[in-house]
Every structure is written in structure tokens, then in C-alpha cells.
Design a protein that fits this description.
The protein has helices at about 30, 35-65, 110-125, 140-150, 175-185, 185-190, and strands at about 100-105, 130-135, 165, 170, 210, 220-225, 225-230, 240. The protein is α+β, with helices and mostly antiparallel strands.
């Protein structure tokens, strides 16, 4: 048989003052105490005071500003396009009768390469005379492009490719050519240029360059008394412009 359970002799003291009299819950009373309503009133009053001050300042500012004239043109109609004489222009022979494109055929920067291919595809669709100048094939084109923009006062701007000139006038880069083509303005600009037959050059295969005939593409010439010298007829890659398709 089980022994009867004995009652505990420990007396539990009643704590009517608070149900949370244990030591582990000594901070709960402070956490549960509601904030005094006067603090909210004080904060809200300061916020409304700030709003009133701000409204008063704005009202006085609007009264002090002069009213716009009805005959004056709106401010948003003003454009920041620089005058035509400040735009870059090229002076190479025959530039006024063709399109000159500075681009690169390297795949180093994918976005730049895709922009160059897009611009070439758009311009070739008009079947006009295009002078494509690949900066990766001849570094003199880079110096030429830098000189064009430095002479027009844009030497500090970041040079990106492609750069398009139509009839000797600067048209912009890939984004500008896309917008002009979509709006139909590009066709109107190119209408005055002479047309050519589309096709690939039989001499260079469309690369616009061929090997130098004097140094056979080595960019070096041997002279008996002086030894090896750099060839002056070609560029640093041993290439010259194709005489058949270069314009």
C-alpha cells in the first residue's frame, strides 16, 4: 500500500500587492507600466509647432516670390543643347559627302562591341558611302578622334564608341543614332548623301586594311648600313588602308 501524501509545513505568504513578486520578474512591472499621457501631449505639441512654423515660412516665401509673366516661355521648354558651332566636326577630305564612323571590332567590352555592331547595321541599311575607322586596327584613328573633340572644347568628356559623323557634322553615339533612326530623322539627314552599291570588297574582304607591301606586314625594314628600321608606309600592325574600298 502507498503511504498517504503528507502536507507541506512550509507556509506560502500571500502577496496581494502584485502578482509578480518573484525575483526573476522584478523588471516586468517597470516594462508594463504605460507611459504617462503628458509625454505624448508634449511630443505632439512640439510636432504641431514645427508644422505651423514650416507652413508660415512657406507662405511668406510664396508671397515674396514674383508672379511669372504670362508671355514668358515655360522653364521646361528650355533646352540645354549646345549651339551648332560648338558641336565637334571633322575636316578630313570628302567628309561632307559620306558617313564617318569611329568604332572598334574588339570584343573586350561587350556593350561597346554590341553598340558598334548595332550602329554599323543601321547605317549600312541606307546604302550610302561609309568610312568605317576601326580604332583597334590603327591607333592613329584614336589620336584623330581625340583631336576632334579637344578642338571643340570637349577634351574632358569621356570618350566612348561608336562616334558617328554625317556630312562632317557630329551626330552622337549609339543611343543618339537609335533615336534618330526610330523617329525617322536619320533618313532625312542621310538623303542628301550619294548612294553606293552594297557588297564586300574583293581586295580586303571588308576589313578595310591589307598587309603592307614594303614590309610584308612586319612593320620592320632592314637597311644594310642602319640595320632594322620601322616601316613608315604602314601602321604599328603592319597594315595599310585598302586602296579599293577606302574612301
Amino acid at each position: 500500500m502507498w503511504r498517504p501524501r503528507a502536507k507541506s509545513t512550509v507556509k506560502i505568504h500571500d502577496t496581494p500587492s502584485s502578482p509578480f513578486s518573484f525575483s526573476t520578474f522584478k523588471d516586468i512591472q517597470n516594462l508594463c507600466v504605460e507611459d504617462h499621457p503628458s509625454s505624448h501631449i508634449k511630443k505632439s505639441s512640439s510636432i504641431f509647432h514645427r508644422v505651423r512654423v514650416a507652413n508660415t515660412f512657406l507662405r511668406s516665401l510664396s508671397l515674396s516670390l514674383p508672379e511669372p509673366e504670362h508671355n514668358a516661355a515655360p522653364a521646361h521648354n528650355k533646352t540645354t543643347t549646345p549651339p551648332l558651332q560648338e558641336q565637334p566636326s571633322i575636316t578630313i577630305p570628302g567628309a561632307d559627302k559620306r558617313i564617318v564612323v569611329y568604332y572598334t571590332s574588339l570584343h573586350v567590352v561587350r556593350s561597346t562591341y554590341e553598340d558598334c555592331k548595332t550602329v554599323q547595321s543601321i547605317l549600312r541599311g541606307f546604302r550610302v558611302l561609309i568610312d568605317e575607322r576601326d580604332l583597334s586596327m590603327d591607333s592613329s584613328f584614336l589620336n584623330e578622334l581625340n583631336q576632334i573633340f579637344s578642338s571643340s572644347g570637349n577634351c574632358c568628356r569621356k570618350l566612348t564608341l561608336p562616334r558617328v559623323f554625317i556630312g562632317g557634322r557630329y551626330m552622337g553615339g549609339a543611343e543618339e543614332i537609335r533615336q534618330l533612326n526610330e523617329s525617322g530623322e536619320l533618313k532625312k539627314i542621310i538623303e542628301g548623301l550619294p548612294t553606293v552599291n552594297s557588297g564586300v570588297c574583293d581586295v580586303c574582304g571588308g576589313y578595310r586594311f591589307i598587309l603592307c607591301g614594303q614590309c610584308s606586314g612586319s612593320h620592320k625594314l632592314y637597311i644594310v648600313k642602319a640595320g632594322f628600321k620601322s616601316c613608315t608606309a604602314c601602321n604599328e600592325n603592319g597594315l595599310i588602308r585598302c586602296p579599293s574600298c577606302a574612301v
